[in-house]
């Protein structure tokens, strides 16, 4: 009896020790980095940043299943933390529109001042967003657009078509001299309108210099999906001159597939603008020569705009008295020459 | 529903089924054999609510918030009722989430919507239910007559239903513009949203079907011991097929509900709902190996999950902490339930 008891205790203690060990190993933050991280340049001490009335902002976004989406939430939370007058209420990140709708319903019940919403599916969240607007809540729509203009006061968008154009124009400049150049495209999730817009922009820009997409595959923004898609693509195309990859998160898997296949006869252009891609562009030791930015700070901009809207302030650099209806961000090409300018806002994938 | 097909006199058959169904267990009312098991769930739900009221006060206890919880619960709730039957009958259905996606897409195609405009909005509902029932029947035939293992047959349906939905929708979101249907799904008779009414109706119908009909007793018999059930005169294969068809039908209802809630059909609807439903059913006290099922437990299980997510958001907990807490609560709920069941068994 007592030995059995002792054995039980030993087992419990052992489990606890193993747990402690495992927990101790989960940290991914280099010790020094915390202090080295400089405050963002946002603190240009304009009157807009001075504390005003308290603003409660509800925030909801899809699950952080890839680095870009993770950075959306992280940068929004960080931005909100910079303001004493902002209280951010975060809802569970989800790819289930049913749950996301109920989160917005909850925000309406709670009477928040503003909602910053990156919907998993813009169309599915439109109705509940209209309800929120009717309840007098300022809705800021981020990235994926609603179906109805009345569903949001302000919309912050990336430039998906422009991303494709930027990537296509850059590739034209690099390989456009050869009219037979083979250009491949690795798209993201194909059923999102944003993927279709990116592909359209890419096709249009390539068309301007007489090139076309010779091979196109689609992945799903994940490392694993990128690896599979790229491995198939490289099998199908024995010789390539350029590849455009829509997303740097899946790019990690794509680079692995390229290394496995031992290929380096082409140049590759990334998309979205992750930190590790920018670093390898800077080092210039792989096929990656450029990436096109799709800002992961959109939701952070959404938080700032929501705060201005609720406090009745305007964007101080514009003459306009009111905050604009739509803010569309730019999609610049990052190369070895200008990479240093963009590294600070790059996202970790 | 199939009295005329039976080879033995009804009274005789049902007596034998009764014997096979559950030796030693009293025939299930809400308050008979299942009391002990449900008690754990009620305690968990009440504890969650108390936690919610303490931390969020009026905001949690308001009628609006309770309705928000119920609306969130209703789609998963309806498919969990169907899942309860399949699991009680000794099977599993992994395809319900995909079938929700397929039904919502099929019921919102341009063709369906045009027909609904010309004829009546009920066309949308019937189309969704038909798709669900059809998918369920395919599952049932494959499993009962094709002798494909349930896990594999429904896994195949999970993959292919989603694929078919993507093809039909061309991977785009289809917006519903049939006003009659939208008005119906937006209505709230007696102040209770239509979605919640549907959940309630399906639950009551499920409870009656499982506890008060021959169909329910046969389900328990088939799940508990298929060989004995066969010897007692039950057509096990046909009954198994009915169970999957029923589960598919609830997935079709779920798809239509999703359509009403989001006003849009999308092939991404219902992703991972099969796991939510299975978790709710098992937490509820239905045996994963079959032979015992409880609708009340399932409903409580669904409510626990949706209340949990509501309480988390009320308290602004970190997203990752929420996920961990969910896992812990699943395990604690099952452990608690086992303890209580053991104690009540020891007591008799």
Task: Give the structure's gist in a few sentences.
Chain A is of the alpha/beta class and 349 residues long. Chain A is built from twelve helices and twelve strands.
Could you explain how this protein is built, in words?
- The complex is a heterodimer of chains A (349) and B (348).
- Chain A is α/β, with parallel strands linked by helices.
- Chain A is built from twelve helices and twelve strands.
- In chain A, the strands form two sheets. In chain A, strands 2-1-3-4-5-11 form a six-stranded parallel sheet, sandwiched between helices.
- In chain A, helix 4 runs parallel beside helix 5 and helix 8 packs across helix 9.
- The longest helix of chain A is centred in the first third of the chain and has 23 residues.
- About 4% of the residues of chain A have low confidence.
- With 348 residues, chain B is an all-alpha fold.
- Chain B contains 16 helices and two strands.
- Chain B has a two-stranded antiparallel sheet with strand order 1-2.
- Chain B is globular.
- The two termini of chain B are 36 Å apart.
- The interface between A and B is medium-sized, with 32 and 38 residues.
Helix-strand blueprint:
The complex is a heterodimer of chains A (349) and B (348).
Chain A: H1 2-24, H2 33-36, E1 55-60, H3 67-81, E2 86-90, H4 97-110, E3 114-117, H5 122-134, E4 138-142, E5 154-157, H6 160-175, E6 183-187, H7 193-208, E7 213-218, H8 223-236, E8 242-245, H9 248-261, E9 267-272, H10 275-283, E10 288-293, H11 298-310, E11 326-328, E12 333-335, H12 339-342
Chain B: H1 10-21, H2 35-56, H3 58-61, H4 63-88, H5 96-106, H6 110-118, H7 122-144, H8 150-169, E1 174-175, H9 179-186, H10 194-212, H11 214-224, H12 226-231, H13 236-262, E2 264-265, H14 273-284, H15 295-314, H16 319-347
Antiparallel strand pairs in B: 1-2
């Amino acid at each position: 009896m007592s030995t059995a008891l002792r054995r039980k205790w030993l087992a419990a203690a052992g489990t606890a020790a193993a747990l402690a060990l495992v927990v101790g190993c989960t940290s991914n933050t280099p010790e020094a980095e915390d202090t080295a991280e400089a405050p963002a340049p946002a603190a240009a001490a304009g009157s807009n940043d001075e504390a005003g009335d308290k603003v409660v902002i509800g925030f909801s976004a899809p699950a952080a299943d890839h680095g870009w989406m993770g950075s959306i939430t992280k940068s929004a939370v960080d931005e909100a933390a910079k303001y004493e007058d902002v209280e951010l209420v975060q809802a569970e990140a989800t790819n289930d529109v049913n749950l996301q709708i109920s989160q917005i319903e909850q925000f309406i019940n709670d009477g928040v001042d503003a909602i910053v919403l990156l919907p998993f599916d813009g169309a599915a969240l439109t109705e509940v967003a209209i309800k929120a607007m009717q309840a007098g809540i300022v809705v800021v729509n981020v990235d994926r657009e609603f179906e109805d203009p009345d569903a949001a006061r302000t919309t912050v968008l990336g430039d998906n078509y422009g991303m494709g154009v930027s990537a296509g124009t850059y590739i034209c400049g690099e390989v456009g001299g050869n009219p037979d150049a083979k250009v491949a495209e690795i798209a993201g999730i194909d059923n999102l309108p944003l993927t279709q817009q990116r592909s359209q922009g890419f096709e249009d820009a390539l068309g301007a210099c007489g090139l076309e997409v010779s091979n196109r595959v689609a992945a799903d923004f994940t490392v694993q999906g990128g690896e599979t898609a790229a491995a198939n693509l490289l099998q199908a195309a024995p010789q390539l001159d350029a590849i455009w990859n829509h997303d740097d998160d899946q790019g990690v898997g794509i680079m692995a597939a390229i290394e496995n296949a031992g290929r380096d006869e082409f140049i590759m252009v990334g998309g979205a603008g992750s930190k590790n891609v920018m670093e390898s562009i800077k080092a210039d030791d792989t096929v990656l020569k450029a990436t096109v930015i799709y800002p992961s700070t959109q939701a952070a901009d959404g938080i700032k705009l929501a705060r201005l809207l609720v406090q009745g302030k305007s964007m101080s650099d514009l003459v306009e008295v009111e905050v604009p209806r739509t803010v569309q961000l730019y999609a610049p090409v990052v190369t070895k020459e200008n990479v240093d300018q963009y590294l600070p806002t790059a996202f970790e994938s | 529903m199939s009295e005329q097909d039976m080879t033995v006199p009804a009274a005789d058959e049902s007596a034998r089924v009764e014997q096979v169904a559950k030796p030693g267990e009293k025939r299930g009312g809400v308050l008979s054999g299942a009391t002990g098991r449900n008690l754990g769930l009620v305690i968990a739900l009440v504890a969650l609510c108390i936690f919610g009221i303490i931390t969020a006060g009026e905001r949690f206890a308001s009628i609006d918030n309770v309705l928000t919880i119920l609306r969130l619960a209703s789609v998963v709730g309806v498919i969990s009722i169907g899942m309860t039957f399949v699991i009680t009958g000794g099977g599993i259905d992994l395809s319900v989430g995909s079938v929700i996606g397929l039904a919502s897409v099929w019921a919102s195609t341009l063709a369906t919507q045009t027909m609904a405009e010309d004829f009546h909005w009920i066309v949308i509902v019937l189309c969704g239910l038909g798709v669900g029932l059809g998918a369920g029947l395919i599952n049932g035939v494959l499993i009962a007559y094709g002798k494909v293992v349930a896990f594999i047959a429904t896994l195949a349906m999970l993959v292919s239903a989603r694929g078919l939905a993507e093809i039909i929708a061309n991977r785009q979101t289809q917006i519903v513009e049939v006003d009659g249907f939208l008005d119906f799904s937006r209505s709230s008779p007696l102040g209770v949203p239509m979605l919640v009414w549907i959940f309630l109706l399906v639950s009551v119908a499920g409870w009656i079907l499982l506890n008060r009909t021959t169909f329910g007793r046969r389900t328990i018999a088939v799940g508990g011991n298929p060989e004995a059930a066969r010897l007692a005169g039950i057509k096990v294969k046909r009954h198994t097929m009915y169970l999957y068809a029923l589960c598919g039908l609830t997935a079709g209802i779920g798809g239509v509900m999703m359509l009403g809630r989001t006003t849009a059909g999308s092939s991404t609807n219902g992703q991972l709902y099969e796991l939510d439903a299975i978790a709710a059913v098992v937490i509820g006290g239905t045996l994963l190996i079959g032979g015992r099922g409880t609708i009340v437990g399932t409903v409580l299980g669904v409510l626990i999950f949706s209340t949990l997510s509501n309480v988390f958001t009320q308290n602004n907990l970190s997203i990752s902490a929420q996920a961990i807490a969910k896992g812990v609560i699943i395990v604690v709920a099952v452990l608690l339930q086992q303890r209580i069941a053991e104690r009540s068994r020891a007591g008799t």
